[in-house]
Write a structure and sequence with these properties.
With about 625 residues, the chain is of the alpha/beta class. The chain is about 45% helix and about 15% strand. The chain contains 22 helices and 19 strands. A five-stranded parallel sheet has the order 6-7-5-8-11. Strands 2-1-3-4 form a four-stranded parallel sheet, with helices on one face. The radius of gyration is 44 Å and the shape is elongated.
């Protein structure tokens, strides 16, 4: 808003649809008169408004409506937060060296942007960054030619074309004067010695046309001219931004800040923002005034530079002896609407690094994925969510590389420990902060605890020692140590992830053990069933045998007593009965022998499975 006007006077609404109808209805109910327009009214009508409401929610369309309010002064504007609102987009800052770089930083802070400085893989909204590296002095050719040549896919994934760029420039002759006062100071630049022993006049002459190191003034400043031509760039002159405190115009400063607020859809009272911009405590602040070249450069040199740098001066809209120090192109740049590229390359898979640990590292859908080379060509944009979930992925390229190198669990654990260390250092605690960095050591190193186990690094291996066992002496021979404890008391692995999988019971070795134990239990149950069956049949056989023997004795006694009275046929019948009983006994003995043979087969299977399991286990975890 401009100058924080009171909430009195006409209220204008621009828009249509349900939101507009609701606002008018509710305002009328509260006794507030709202003058509604479906389209933006003429400027003369808008100037009557003290409160202006917009209902447009689309970023580009809302931006154009807001820019129509550029010449309004006493007005409060209310509008929805669109996708172009400053809280939903990052901001890039580009500045010519000695053109008010820290003025631009202070301005971004006053608008409400956080300082991100060096751009991450995916910049955060509401945060300002440099386009490259950690300084904002990005020469257009360096970025659009050199960086494009070096970056994958012509650097198309860089968000610069979809992000507003605040570009700060200054009168080239004032830049020259500021350079001559600054570059020779020890510690301010790495090339301060290049100007050693030279006075101000000689430094100026060298900076005008230095063909060996820094280039000419025309080259240094002219290298930034192309930024003016990009539709997503907001040019602002040092002379506008510095305001009355720097010898400029407070009115011009407020107008420029207001224009940028409208383009960035940034909240705030313009004069309050302006009050925070001019910071004399900046590390590179010298004088911060405009037009200094008129008093510090010889008249003949000014005329010479006006001729030699004519194209650069006119490109920015400057003259050397005009009535106003404000560049002539200011109004043009203020009224120019923002436009962003409609092409979003974040949804297109882009290989950013090839053959890292047998994988191509691919940027896709705001994440990084490791695509194994063994899988051949993988079109990530054609993969299902389940297929993508099987690939290692991370939010940043550095994180993905770390995960591939040490594993996800180890990465998360170490990151948590480093964060804790940072918190302790930030809090100025007196605790002994020594994060557990895992390394091969001759001394056992306790680096963490997990689910009732102490995790110990020692001699290139990782051990999980069950806490309930008590003290365990690791100094003895490893084979001896392992023989003294049950397998679930001491677990051992070559990496932390496998060790934790063993504890969780999901590793291959643990699953093989559980599977073998299950098989053994099943075989033992079958063996027990066979034993019980044999015992039952043996008892039945013994009962039959006892009955046969009893009947035989009875028959033999009867034969002796009645031998004279019984005919031969009867005797033969009894003998046949006895023979049948004896044959039944023989059959039962055969069945008993078969059961015993089945027991021997089951025992052999059990021995074979145990031998196979132990062989696989020792091949996986040699001691």
């Amino acid at each position: 808003m401009r100058n924080n006007p009171p909430l009195t006077g006409p209220v204008y609404l621009v828009g249509h649809g349900e939101l507009a109808d609701t606002i008018v209805r509710d305002a009328t109910h509260e006794g507030v008169s709202v003058i509604a327009h479906t389209d933006i009214p003429p400027l003369e009508v808008l100037k009557q408004a003290r409160v202006l409401l917009f209902t447009e929610t689309r970023g580009e369309q809302l931006g154009d409506l807001l820019l129509a309010c550029l010449d309004l002064q006493q007005v409060r504007i209310f509008a929805p937060k669109s996708d172009w609102h400053m809280s939903r987009k990052p901001l890039f800052i580009v500045s010519i060296p000695k053109a008010g770089t820290h003025l631009a930083y202070e301005f971004a802070r006053a608008l409400g942007y956080a300082a991100g400085i060096q751009i991450p893989d995916f910049p955060k909204p509401g945060t300002w960054y440099c386009i490259e590296y950690s300084n904002s002095h990005t020469v257009a050719r360096d970025f659009f030619i050199d960086s494009v040549r070096r970056a994958p896919f012509g650097n198309r994934h860089h968000p610069v074309t979809q992000t507003p760029v605040l570009f700060v420039y200054r009168h080239p002759l004032d830049i020259l004067v500021s350079e001559a006062h600054y570059y020779h100071r020890e510690g301010k630049t790495v090339f301060a010695g290049y100007f050693s022993g030279k006075d101000f006049e000689h430094r100026v002459r060298q900076l005008v046309d230095d063909e060996w190191l820094l280039g000419s003034l025309r080259q240094r400043v002219g290298g930034f001219l192309p930024w003016l031509n990009f539709p997503n760039v907001i040019p602002i002159a040092f002379e506008e931004l510095v305001g009355g405190a720097g010898g400029g115009s407070a009115r011009a400063q407020l107008k420029s800040i207001w224009a940028i607020q409208l383009k960035l859809q940034a909240d705030g009272i313009t004069k309050d923002i302006a009050a925070q911009v001019f910071n004399q405590n900046s590390a590179t602040f010298r004088e911060g005034r405009i037009g200094g070249y008129l008093s510090q450069l010889p008249s003949n040199l000014i005329d010479e530079l006006a001729d030699r740098c004519a194209d650069v001066l006119s490109g920015f809209g400057y003259t050397v002896r005009g009535d106003s120090l404000i560049p002539r192109r200011v109004a043009e740049f203020q009224s120019r609407p923002l436009r962003y590229s409609a092409k979003d390359f974040n949804e297109m898979p882009l290989t950013v690094e090839q053959d890292f640990m047998g994988c191509n590292l691919v940027r896709y859908a705001h994440r990084f994925y490791a695509a194994p080379l063994s899988a051949g060509v993988i079109a990530l944009d054609e993969c299902t969510a389940q297929q993508l979930a099987r690939l290692p992925s991370a939010a940043t390229l550095a994180e993905l590389k770390s995960v591939l190198l040490i594993g996800r669990k180890a990465y998360d654990r170490q990151l948590a420990q480093l964060n804790q260390t940072g918190f302790e250092l930030h809090s100025n605690t007196t605790n002994n902060v020594s994060p557990a960095y895992w390394m091969e050591s001759e001394e056992p190193c306790l680096f963490d605890t997990y689910k009732g186990f102490n995790l110990v690094a020692w001699k290139g291996r990782y051990f999980a020692l069950r806490q309930s066992v008590g003290m365990i002496d690791l100094a003895q021979n490893l084979q001896t140590l392992l023989s003294l404890y049950t397998p679930d008391a001491i677990l051992m692995a070559r990496d932390v992830d496998t060790l934790m999988d063993d504890i969780d019971g999901i590793s291959t070795a643990v699953r093989l053990t559980n599977n073998a134990n299950g098989n053994i239990s099943g075989l033992q149950a079958q063996l027990d069933d066979c034993t019980r069956s044999i015992q039952t049949q043996s008892e039945q056989l013994q009962n039959v045998y006892d009955m046969a023997r009893l009947y035989g004795e009875k028959i033999e006694g009867s034969l002796q007593a009645l031998s004279l009275q019984i005919e031969d046929s009867v005797v033969k019948g009894l003998q046949n009965t006895l023979t049948s009983i004896i044959q039944q006994h023989a059959v039962l003995q055969g069945e008993l022998q078969k059961q015993e043979e089945q027991i021997m087969v089951l025992n052999n299977k059990l021995d074979i499975r145990n031998a196979s399991f132990l062989s696989r286990l020792f091949r996986r975890n040699p001691r």
